[in-house]
Here is the input.
Amino acid sequence: MAGDLPNGNPFLPVLCTVMLWAHIRRGMQSKSTVLITGASSGIGLALAKAFLQEGYQVVANSRRITSAGTLTASPSLALIDGDVAEPATAAKLVDTAVRQFGGLDVLVNNAGIFVPKAFDEYSSSDFRRVLDTNVTGFFYVTQHAVRQMKKQGGGQVVTISTTLAGQPVAGVNAALTSLTKGGLNAVTKGLALEYAASGIRFNAIAPGIVDTPMHRAEDHESLKDLHPIRRLGTVEEIAAAALFLVKAPFITGEVLHVDGGAHAGKW
Here is the structure.
């Protein structure tokens, strides 16, 4: 029987198959994996495309990302529907990163909503909706991600905030945004200290007004006046800032403003 195979080893085909799969698995694990929430449009979509272009394996999430038609699942891209305010969704996102790609290296908390109203006109429904996405979603997803990163010996979390949290603008009514995103800026600094010894970095990006489907084209001209550099930011600039932070190993606890100078003061 042994003579039926050129080298005389009947177990060689099985051994070769096992070695091939081990090689493929090592290749998967040598790539970094990023989880991005709110990834079906705007900044989140640009983030997903930028990280894919950089060679990352990506887990992309939004409530209905599989039917949004903006991303197509592939061997390097997993699309997961779900509300980040639900603990089960948060667990599924991290579990998908581990099961499909072997781990989780970067979390980008991008999911967020903006409800512009006068403070006294907000309803309890408005409050709950903004809190659920901006804060509750951050809490559950980040908690699950940190637990996994601790097992792996490190990782990093980047949270998309807003310059309005630290530099309000007269006429731009955004109290719930300041309330929630300001909290995320604060907790970014606190968590950076708490998990530095665990090798987990925390940073945030505070964009100005960015050209996304959130803003009507007819409003763009007036929105430009909200920045000393008189234009809207682009989603690609926010994605570039995220990649910069990911590649900067000595930066943690930072809120990086990408806002055309709006945070610098009155102009």
In short: The two ends are 86 Å apart (CA to CA). Residues 21 and 40 are 32 Å apart (CA to CA). Confidence is low (pLDDT under 50) at residues 1-5, 21-28.
